[in-house]
Amino acid sequence: MDATAKRLARSLERLYARVPLGMRLGLEAMRAACERAGNPESSFDCVHVAGTNGKGSVSAMIASVARASGRRTGLYTSPHLARFAERIRIDGEPISDADLVTVLERALDVGHDLSFFETATLAAFFAFRDARVELAVLEVGLGGRLDATNVIARSRVSVITRIALDHEDRLGHTLPEIAREKAAIAKPGCPMVVGRVPPDVREAIAGVAEPLGASVQFLDDVARETIPALPHLPGAYQADNAEVAWLACRALGLDAHVERGLREARWPGRFERLTTPEGDVLLDAAHNEDGALALVASLAAEPRPGGEPSPVALVFGSLADKHFVLTLPVVARIAVADARFYVEPKGRAAAPPSALSKVAQGHEMPSLSEALRAARARVGKGGLVVVCGSVYLVGEARALLLGEPTDPPVAL
Fold first, then answer.
1. Residue 303: how many CB atoms within 10 A of its CB?
2. What is the pTM of this model?
3. How buried is residue 243: exposed, middle or buried, by Cβ count under 10 Å (0-12/13-18/19+)?
4. Cα(318)–Cα(309) distance, rounded to whole angstroms?
């Protein structure tokens, strides 16, 4: 292990020691750390993206369009699939190990009282300032109002992708309550674009953003015939995400670069098909009912050569605090009972496979590698193995299938 790798290992160890603080909501500590650091978050323009599902994909699309326009671009997302460096990207590429060490050490020292996610966010701000990023796309970690990314004073445009039930213990128990938390990323005088949402959610978002003087444009108000036919990431659900990204890029004045940017956008682990010597594997980070419905619809929309679908096996795992009792029955439709295999994802407390079997009959497996082998044996080389239910499970599967190095997963 070279010197940089050793320093990075030490920095990540220090960072992961802050995991017990959890996803802390509140801005006081983050604001104080930014002030001590000379306010790196004010050194670049930004797009701020919130939403229950789709915010990572939309963030990646917007960043790709900004790169296509020639802008020096940053992208901050969470969590990572394989390596922590994926969270901080400069011009589409994960930050180098040497630069990651530099910004992590600085963030750990300056933000001595910050949580894991707050420290990661501060490190991203340092990275973007050091790289002279012109436009950074910041994905909200949790909610919006009290998320660490919301220390930014202004945004070129704020984005809300869609609203569904998730993290009710932190954000509220109804869609309008959750929407109000997310809409609080609105900034005075800054435009906000919103994906397709029901009327009560629309009203809740407008009620937060408009009093601030933020002009809100809802995708439902845009005539469908005016939305260009744009290339987008695989998966039928990415069409809506591409339209939200297009609306945001229009607000940024990047219309001329949208087609190329969306064509070049990449976002692993979202309806991503890997072709292996043993057969195809589909990875999708569907972790709630809304995401599960989108996955099932996308599978149904895929062309079927010869008219008959290939046999499908399901590998599913969920964190214990997710609504797997709602998610699993949806995705269970894609595979018969003896082609469902349940495992525990890493990251934080997982739902035991025995609990999953009670929701929808399936095989309880001791490890992901064994579940993948059993699923492949069940459907053969010509069948499809679908891995979903947790982004951390998808990340582990992707690294295993591609032989990629990994950093520890963390559900923050």
1. 5
2. 0.93
3. buried
4. 26
pLDDT at 127 over 80: yes
- pLDDT given at position 309: 76
pLDDT digits (tens, 9 = 90+) for 252-278: 999 999 999 999 999 999 999 999 999
Q: At which residue do the structure tokens 């969920």 appear? A: 318
Dihedral (CA of 298, 303, 304, 307) sign: positive
Residue that the structure tokens 């309806």 belong to = 271
Nearest-angstrom CA–CA distance, 67 and 69:
5
Residues forming beta bridges with residue 136, ordered by sequence position: 46, 74
Q: Which amino acid is at 347?
A: G
Q: How many residues does the chain have?
A: 412
One-letter amino acid of 291? G
